[in-house]
Predict the 3D structure of the following.
Amino acid sequence: MAKKQGAQAQEKRAGAKSQQKKGAQTARSGGGGPVKFAKDVRGELRKVNWPNREQLRQSTAIVILVVLFLMAYVAAWDFVFRNVAGFIFG
């Protein structure tokens, strides 16, 4: 009985090593090539929840407003530092 259990355990280990080798070979070889990659990308893009036109407009408006605000903020600090440097190094 003990010999039988030992043999089964050895078979399991050999099977696990075989699976590890297969996984390593697949990882090294790229796992299916560019055709499989393109199919996988297409499948993932079908799962994406794309925004409708109104959501896109709102998001674009927010991005433009934030960029304008940050531009004004940086310009104001630039003006301050330029005048301070001009006063110091005159």
Summary: The helical segments are 2-29, 33-47, 53-89. DSSP finds three helices and no strands in the chain.
